[in-house]
Amino acid sequence: MTAYKDLSKEELLSLKSNLEKEFKKVKAKGIKLDMSRGKPSTEQLNLSMGMMDVLTSDSDLVCEEGVDCRNYGVLDGIKEAKQLLADMMEVPKDNIIIFGNSSLNVMYDTIARSMTHGVMGSTPWCKLDKVKFLCPVPGYDRHFAITEYFGIEMINIPMTPTGPDMDMVEEYVNNDPAVKGIWCVPKYSNPQGITYSDETVHRFAKLNPAAEDFRIFWDNAYGIHHLYEDKQDYLIEILMECKKEGHPDMVYKFASTSKISFPGSGIGAIAASDANLADIRKQMKIQTIGHDKLNQLRHARFFGDIHGMVQHMKKHADIMRPKFDAVLDTLETELGGLEIGSWIAPRGGYFISFDSMDGCAKAIVAKAKEAGLVMTGAGATFPYGKDPKDSNIRIAPSYPTLQEIREAAKIFVLSVKLVSIDKLLE
Ligand code: PLP
């Protein structure tokens, strides 16, 4: 394979004309594919259908603490759901609060509470002149949307293969009291699939924040979402690590069963120190009398325990793995050596992150759309939707069928090639 940058103008033009013919043919097929959001496929949702049968009109609906789950009661989660989610999140059962159907909701509430009421007695953020958040990039668009919504200034922190650039993180957090938080997806990150190294986690736990109300927003959304049984990433547990370093209150950990059972109908949870949880409960008891206990019971009874959940995740992996492999194989065979893009092969999570040549991402996404393939908008992986290099594209292979993924991957690489040639011809 000759790198495109080493081809002459004539060679590029002739290549372009061939690729355009190919593109025309693909376009004529009238394909309609959506690879924009990280949603489980129908086949994956079907894995949890048994959950619909665990609670019937004959079921005993009393939970372990003796409360009838059909009625009010139990503010922060029934025991059996706490145990299941605590094991999933690798924290003690008493360091967890179970919320409603979504972890994003819990993250939003956490920021909203800090804005209006502060953090464990600190000045409410809304009364401060400036509140800043560090945003490892590329990252999760909905995190950035929350901080943008509250007018919090977002600062890009480049991701490295071992996690966020920790020199920058330390510099900001340890010196600027306006920096109140950092968004982290520490395992199989969205979108790169990167897991923070041991050193990165140690450095997080050793932070010495200038702001006493600084918190790490540790969104472990993909904690048990492996793709391969023999190749898995390991992440050091952050709550314990912060406690060891004498900063037990510095982190909020979030997770949910969205991509384990049913997105939008799962269970969301937060894990944190006793002091943080006490602060959260003060608000929670005003906000609700308790979340959906029947759903908590359904989840607890369906999975049984963490071992049941781990077995269940293997079934998800069996469905996801061929799709990821199909995209990665196509990228490798079609783009390998051309030096017009780079990507990371993740070992878990929901995404593959692709970096095009600078200034090409928007055009690639637009080109793919011309052929019927909808991808996540270029720029979405950055705060304010602004990718300074216009190069990152998030590929979400989970939802379409394997056959569709093969088609989609072909459209994508064709689009990358065509746009890159145009860029080189400029
Ligand atoms: N966090 C990350 C990193 C995600 O990628 C997603 C969904 O894509 C979520 C949270 C959403 O989680 P939930 O459905 O629990 O709100």
Describe it for me?
The chain is α/β, with parallel strands linked by helices and 426 residues long. The chain has two domains: 4-44 and 310-425, Aspartate Aminotransferase, domain 1 (Alpha-Beta Complex), CATH 3.90.1150.10; 63-304, Aspartate Aminotransferase, domain 2, CATH 3.40.640.10. The protein has helices at 9-28, 42-46, 51-54, 79-89, 103-117, 141-149, 166-175, 198-205, 238-244, 274-287, 293-303, 306-335, 361-370, 402-425; strands at 33-35, 96-98, 132-137, 153-160, 163-164, 179-184, 215-219, 251-256, 268-271, 341-343, 352-356, 373-375, 392-395. β7, α9 (238-244) and β8 form a beta-alpha-beta unit. The chain binds pyridoxal-5'-phosphate. Pyridoxal-5'-phosphate binds next to α5. GO terms for molecular function: transaminase activity. This is Aminotransferase. It comes from Dorea ammoniilytica.
